[in-house]
Amino acid sequence: MVVLSPESDGGRRVMIHGKCTGTAYSLFDVLDFLHRAGLPAEDRGIDDPKLIEWRGGGPYDRDNTA
User: Fold this and answer.
1) Strands 12-16 vs 2-3: parallel, antiparallel or unpaired
2) Would you state the pLDDT for residue 62?
3) I want to staple 41 with a disulfide (CB 3.0 to 4.6 A). Which of 8, 34, 46, 62 is the partner?
4) How many Cβ atoms sit within 10 Å of the Cβ of residue 53?
5) What is the mean pLDDT of each run of 10 residues along the chain (66 residues)?
6) Is 11 exposed, middle or buried (0-12, 13-18, 19+ CB in 10 A)?
7) Residue 21: exposed, middle, or buried by beta-carbon count in 10 A (0-12, 13-18, 19+)?
């Protein structure tokens, strides 16, 4: 899963297996995309670089909503 850099509206496009699955506006949205893809949707998954590649800042960067 790849979470792309924030767009002008604060959302971040989410790619799973090379396909855009939607836009995340919060960490809850990212967890929802993980769950729907059948991937482990646990809080600690947010920090797992083997599971999620964060581009343009990580999940806890102050200026990112996701």
Assistant:
1) antiparallel
2) 56
3) 34
4) 11
5) 93 94 93 84 75 89 55
6) middle
7) middle
